[in-house]
Amino acid sequence: MRFSVLASGSTGNAIYVATDRVSVLIDVGITGKQAEAALETIGVNPAELGAILVTHEHVDHIKGVGVMARRYGLPIYANDKTWSELDGQIGTIKEDQRRFFSVGEKKELEDLGIESFGISHDAAEPMGFCFYHGKKKLSVATDLGYVSDRIKETIRGADAYVFESNHDVELLRMSQYPWSIKRRILSDVGHLSNEAAGDALLDCLTGGAERVYLAHLSKENNMIDLARLTVKNILEERGLSVGNDVHLRDTYPDRPTKLEEL
Fold it and tell me: Cα(1)–Cα(175) distance, rounded to whole angstroms?
């Protein structure tokens, strides 16, 4: 199983996951042109894509969904409530491209197993995904206000995680955001702070050299180095050696991560 975080942050999100038989995008929150460029950067021909999975309907996750689906004839998988929000936002989609993927459902696309799980966010019915191929597992969990025990149980045991580390609490509190937005971000249907990400990861990691991609960083209220240092300190305070037991990886709003293989 191969994957790359094509873009991650408040300006747009997209992830590529592939086996030798199928490849999918998780969200396309960047333009179609940007998605094509990111794929080409990691050596992937967009014409070889097989499907798009949608986590939720916010624009930083669906901006390019309609364009990519129409251009390459891709089926779009989303749950029923999300589809109700997508209609009117992503343009006309042919009926045979509209597919349904319910919360808690498991599907197989060729040799790629996919499991969805519900998350806490202010969207219609937001989801995260776990991907399985052979004995390998990739867990994707972003845009969640808190990490429940159920989510931890679902994502635990992965070889790699794409995990939200959205903001530094103090930077957010001192920001020029209106209090209503600050309250939303800090709420149980908002976004995970760096500290919350580190605490949640402690309950998921085994110390088996897992890779953790810190994702969906706020442009205004976080910094790559700050997110990585905060999570690193929390993990190491509990006895995990970053660089040995676990490997932290950065993600970027404007370029893809290296294509990694599990």
Answer: 40
Which of 142, 119, 116, 144 has its CA nearest to residue 130? 116
* Residue 139's pLDDT band (cuts 50, 70, 90): very high
β-pairing, 98-100 vs 76-78, is: parallel
CA torsion through residues 167, 169, 173, 179, sign: positive
Residue 230 CA: distances (Å) to CA of 27, 156, 224 = 27, 21, 10
pLDDT of the residue at 110: 97
* pTM, to two decimals: 0.97
Query: Contact, 159 vs 137, CB < 8 A?
Result: yes
Cα Rg of the chain, angstroms: 17
Q: Provide the 10 A C-beta neighbour count for residue 237.
A: 10
- Closest by alpha carbon to 48, among 76, 24, 30, 67? 24
Q: Are 205 and 159 in contact (CB under 8 A)?
A: no
User: What percent of the chain stands above pLDDT 90?
Assistant: 99
Task: Provide the token pair at 252.
Answer: 């970027």
